[in-house]
Structure formats: structure tokens, C-alpha cells
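Weekly structure sync, notes
Attendees: PL (lead), two postdocs, one rotation student
Agenda item 3: pending single-chain targets
PL asked that the sequence for the first pending target be pasted directly into the notes so everyone works from the same version. It is reproduced below exactly as submitted, 153 residues in total.
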Amino acid sequence: MPLPLELTPGQASVWFGQAARPGSGAYQCAELLTFDSPPDIALLSETISTCLGQIEVLQSVFTTDDSGTPVMAPRPHTYEVEETWVPEDADVIEWCTRQISVRCSGDLSGDLLSGHSIVHLPGRQVGWLARFHHIVGDGLSISAIIRWIAATY
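Predicted structure, written out during the meeting:
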């Protein structure tokens, strides 16, 4: 990858939107995927981490160059997958909404770009909570990443 890369018009729009609302988690999107049968948590976690490590945009930092132009440059990151439990009496959607709320300001990299948890839901169900910052992609591309990881698992 040439260093650094200028952002696409869509990424620049998200960058400026985030800059206008520092500390806002408004540019995060997430999916909660549930499993019909319990997954192999160790294998799923390893698969998620390994796949995310292969995605160039998730191995980057979104910042500004010396002239103030928003750019993307390499910054390697290892994504850790957390394992967490939703309290039995919790509203799952509200609980997940609080979990994905990430306050961003300044440079965007690493866990600000994406976060993943294996979630033990009420009723012994297991889910995967996947969060991505919109600067890494739109809904279609994020859905494609999730489908690729699921197929790899």
C-alpha cells in the first residue's frame, strides 16, 4: 500500500462527521449473530481475529497528514475477541447497544475501528456481537466481511 493513502470521498465524509462530533459513537454499526447450536468458542474467536488481521483497512490508522488532509496509513493491530455474559434479566438489545458505544475522537485505529465479543445470551443461547466503524465500510461491505468470517469458521 502506498503511504499514506488519501481517503475515498465516503471515508472523508465519515472522517469529517466524526471530527464534528468528537466523542460520538454515531458512526459505529453492529450486528448480533446468534447460533442454532453452541459454537466452538475458541475456534470462532481465533477465526474472527485471524480474518480481521487480513483486512488492510482494519490494519490501518485514519489520521491527518502534515497539511491536515485525512489519510489512511498502515498500523498493524491484533483484534482480541472478548467473551461476555448478558445478565438474565437484561434487555438484550439495550445491553448490546451499550456494549457497542465507543467514543471516538482524533485518530481512528485498532479497537476504535472494530470490536468483537462472543456473547452468552439469556436462555443459554450464544451470539457474536460484531462492531465496525463506518469509516471501514458501508453496510454491504461490513455484511460481506461478517459472511466471509462465518464461512471461514
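Discussion points:
- The radius of gyration is 16 Å.
- The first strand starts at residue 5 and ends at 6.
Action: rotation student to compare against the earlier draft before next sync.
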